[in-house]
Amino acid sequence: MKDGLWVFFKWGLWWVWRVPPLMAGTRNKTFVHGVVGARSFAMIARMPSRATSSSARERLVAAAADLIATGGVRSVTARTLAEATGQSPSAVNYHFDGREGLLAATFEEAAGDISAWRSGWLATLAADPPSDAFAGWFLALTLERVGSRTAFLVLRELRHQSARSPAHRPLARQEAEAADRFWAAALAQFGLPAEAAGACADYTEAILGIHGGPPDHPDQTAWLVETTRRFCARLSGDRGQAPGWDGWRQFARARGAPEASPGLATAPASAVRIAGAAAAVLGRDGMEGLTHRAVAAEIGLSLAAVSGHFPSRVSLVRAAFDHLIASIQLVRGGVAPDPAVRRPLIEVAAETAEALFDEGGAASPGLLALDELLTAAIREPDLRRDAEDLRASRGENSAKLLHGINHAAYPVDGLDAHILSIATTGAMRSAYAQEPAVRRPWLAARLTASVGAMFG
After folding, report:
1. Would you list the domain boundaries of the chain?
2. Which of 47, 338, 437, 453 has its CA 20 to 30 A from that of 443?
3. pLDDT in tens, 195-240
4. 97 secondary structure, DSSP code
5. Which CATH architecture does the domain made up of 2-186 adopt?
């Protein structure tokens, strides 16, 4: 009960006092506030604390979920589980036939929790709710998803694992399909097109990583509200002129962040090479595989040489951050659309899918590394500020893509591009759950439907 009560006080009361001014342009506020109140108490009733369970098996699953949420799969070891549960290190083998069995049970438990969460949100809808209430309902759901992060981080880890290994892919695919069905049902209730279900699923899947974790939330609320309101407006068919927006970079500057991080600009060549190797290891093996020894083997240097430049694991992760920041081409505002070079959406979507996955269906190592780093920044306070330059680039590259699509003639801006980047990231994660042979065509079809629903 303690976790549920904390979420109620943190988000339920915050909504009572803070959201009305931010939602000033949204009608049906009574409906929105009713949803939030019902959701706060429903979540308390539906999410019991596993800490009170007397089952050794359940306590191991609960501990594994907490460890994954705070440290990723790499933190789930016999020692950490024994410390968390007070059980013998051999308990994992006894109850689950090993670590992989425990991980599978933990992923299944998280999928069940989120299935109940989705059912609860559908239950908040009255018969035939007004379509203009969708934005408030969607925003309330998004804020709760960001605040109730454990199960979602566990399933995010499931998708990461399914990108590299087939063992957990069937469950990841089932969960992604369940998300699509949930959104199709919700959109039908509001009288909105079911074709937008994929866009909703992908937006809510990616928002936690791009937005950041709950510790950052109070400073980012206005950003999240504005982004989500625009997303809902586009799904609802609003194609009119919208105010400009400078994306995450404006938020970072408002917090006093530097215009640009010096990164590796002044580092010696050997340190730059090590940072590149760290990013490569991260993309191939994930955070679990990023160690000084693995980087040394990747680049062919001694362990002492790697540790000499980056003595701690956090400094090594930061080096990978800096390498990715330097390698990302930032497309800033003021991109002028050229009708002569615009192409059909289906062609642009296919080209994007080819850039994200190779012919064999393997995900781009650079994008996997980027995804891993943003997830790490949610969990590790020391990395959060390092992630802001990466988050600042979200949407800037998508601006070029958006202006190259032969969509209807209406103005788009950096906020639209940012939304497209969020949805594309979520679609990429959903594609991880597909079999490698179909990832490219699946993602191309997904992007075609989602972008068409938002900007077609």
Report:
1. 2-186
2. 338
3. 899 999 999 888 866 665 544 445 566 677 878 888 888 888 776 5
4. S
5. Orthogonal Bundle (1.10)
